[in-house]
Amino acid sequence: MAGDSASARQGFPGGGRDAIGGVPRLRGGRREPTLRRVSRAKEAAGRAAAEHVRDGWTVGLGTGSTVHFALERLAERIRHERLAVRGVPTSLATEREARELGIPLVSLDDVASVDLTIDGADEIDERFDMIKGGGAALLREKVVAFLSRRELIVVDRAKCVERLGRAFPLPVEVVPFARAVVARRIAALGAECALRVRGGQPVVTDNGNHVLDCRFRDGIADARAMERTLDEIPGLVESGLFIGLAHALLVGDESGAVHLRERPPR
Length: 266
Ligand code: 5RP
Hints:
Blueprint: H1 5-9, H2 34-50, E1 58-61, H3 65-81, E2 86-89, H4 92-101, E3 116-119, E4 123-124, E5 130-131, H5 138-146, E6 151-156, E7 170-174, H6 179-188, E8 191-195, E9 197-198, E10 201-202, E11 210-216, H7 223-231, E12 236-239, E13 241-242, E14 248-252, E15 258-262
Parallel strand pairs: 1-2, 1-3, 3-6, 6-14
Antiparallel strand pairs: 4-5, 5-13, 7-11, 7-12, 8-11, 9-10, 14-15
Helix pairs in contact: 2-3, 3-4
The structure holds ribulose-5-phosphate.
Ribulose-5-phosphate is lined by residues 62-66, 119-122, 132-138, 141.
């Protein structure tokens, strides 16, 4: 993987690049396609996360392709071990998938707190601050994270970065009415904002809002201060900066190994 943009971002878990192992080679010396390697890393992290669930727990179900593997493994455990868990989905997509897999669900209205949430991230730094929202589920993800006793983040190693926002643009959820106002205000903070579109139409979140992807040229130097600044902009519903919400991190690597880290003391 050396030399591609993902590995340039690979960072801290396990104490250095070598800890992750070499790039697996196929027979004949060919390199395995990046997507397949990343998918294996995501699968390893996602499945490992589901092992952290205990009987009787209320479990926050995050959103994304890494969480997908956690949902599959959790469904297996519910079937085989007769685990009595209740899931709180963070998006309509996750709700649909959990139903299909037979994971019992509960509404957020009916829970006072969540024992464990398993969620992905687009970037995570050494303090365990994160950028989320690549799947446009940031608002519900943040609400559920806020209610969670423990937020367990599952990523492949390319998501571990020194500074947030250098490679991945920061998503912010905005009320459609205020979209231009919010974009101008964020531009004044030094970012280029692009409305997220799919098929030529603005992406509409589960909450009926739009998403601006905000690219900061040198990344976000002070994520905590930036989150506070963004919070003050009317019409900006929520930013994808998740500060102090993650407690633990599972990083999957392409060999299928998984590294668990607890959040360092702040
Ligand atoms: C959705 C998210 C996802 O957790 C994040 O985009 C990571 O997704 P993936 O596991 O597919 O890489 O924040 O809003």
